[in-house]
Amino acid sequence: MSLIWFHRLLISTAIVFCVGFAAWEIFAFRQTGSAWLLLFALLFLGAAAALAIYLRNLRRVLGYERDEKAAGGDRTS
């Protein structure tokens, strides 16, 4: 198991947590009407979106696309 695989798992878990917490805050907002709860829900949805974008572009962030182009390979794994 590589460290990159574990990093992907960790980021995926963080995305699930952020979405779950945002859903919990939205449910609490519907019960109480507190604007703070809605703000927290929106912040955690934004964090989930940012982590999803990061996860999608992880190979580029870590520099694997540059290495593959320099080596002349076209691996997609």
Helices and strands, with pairings:
Elements (H helix, E strand, L loop, with lengths): L2 H30 L2 H22 L1 H5 L1 H8 L6
Would you kindly provide a written description of the structure presented here, covering whatever features stand out?
This protein has 77 residues and is mainly alpha-helical. It has one domain (3-71). The chain is built from 4 helices and no strands. The chain has helices spanning 3-32, 35-56, 58-62, 64-71. The longest helix is centred in the N-terminal third of the chain and has 30 residues, at 3-32. The radius of gyration is 17 Å and the shape is elongated. The mean pLDDT is 88.
Total of DSSP H or I helical runs spanning 4+ residues: 4
The chain-level mean pLDDT equals 88
Give a quick account of the main beta sheet: strands, pairing sense, barrel closure.
none
Helix coverage percent: over 70%
Strand share of the residues?
under 5%
Unreliable segments (pLDDT under 50, ≥5 consecutive)? none
Count of individual domains = 1
The total count of strands amounts to 0
Radius of gyration: 17 Å
Structural category? mainly alpha
Q: Which oligomeric state applies?
A: single chain
Strand and helix order = HHHH
Distance between the termini: 14 Å
